[in-house]
Design brief:
It is built from three helices and five strands; from the N terminus they run H-H-E-E-E-E-E-H. It has 197 residues and is α+β, with helices and mostly antiparallel strands. The chain has a five-stranded mixed sheet. It starts with a helix and ends in a 15-residue tail after the last helix.
Length: 197
């Protein structure tokens, strides 16, 4: 009888520990199925943007678009994309548009010839855009323009020029730019030198 009682007591204690750990994980902002779905949708949208950029490059002698005068960069890609791709559900539900996207493009790529980029896998193409940067050309001009969707807290969705997309999670005491550096992605565009004739 004592053994059965001890087993029941252990089961109750372990159940309580499990409940506490589950609550603690939720408080730390672990990705739940709903959050995971939003994150995956955002990553998918950024992959679609990367594919649209590749189509644009094919149509324009591998040269990136120039900095737009008075519109969002995504307006230049509108012929290659469906309307819903500009919205990041981790930020909002359905408010991103071609004229006001929730993703930014690396402003250092404006006018660059793609074949001169030395490391496409390390060159940031698009990322979640900070709310304060959602204006003008909607570009990522500096690290401060990187956004952190409210469901991710200490993370950002990014897509490199080679088309791979990932969620970069900040470690303790790490800034967002440091997290990008840790995974080998940068806003800096390293180009091959121009050869003189």
């Amino acid at each position: 009888m004592r053994i059965v009682g001890a087993i029941i007591a252990i089961a109750i204690i372990l159940g309580g520990v499990f409940v506490v750990l589950h609550m603690f994980a939720g408080a730390l902002g672990q990705v739940t199925p709903k959050r995971n779905e939003s994150v995956q949708t955002c990553l998918g949208h950024q992959r679609q943007l990367a594919q649209a950029v590749q189509m644009y490059l094919q149509d324009h002698n591998r040269a990136f678009f120039p900095e737009p005068d008075s519109c969002a960069w995504t307006v230049l890609l509108a012929p290659y994309l469906s309307p819903g791709v500009y919205d990041c559900p981790a930020f909002t539900d359905g408010t991103g548009t071609a004229a006001a996207p929730e993703y930014g493009v690396n402003a250092a790529l404006y006018g660059v010839v793609e074949t001169r980029v030395l490391d496409p896998a390390a060159t940031l193409l698009t990322a979640d855009l900070a709310k304060k940067a959602m204006r003008g050309t909607y570009a990522l001009a500096s690290d401060a323009d990187l956004g952190q969707p409210h469901v991710l807290k200490r993370a950002v969705n990014v897509c490199a020029l080679d088309g791979h997309a990932e969620t970069v999670i900040q470690q303790a005491k790490e800034t967002l730019p440091d997290a990008l550096t840790r995974v080998g992605i940068t806003l800096t565009v390293k180009q091959a030198p121009t050869l003189l004739p």
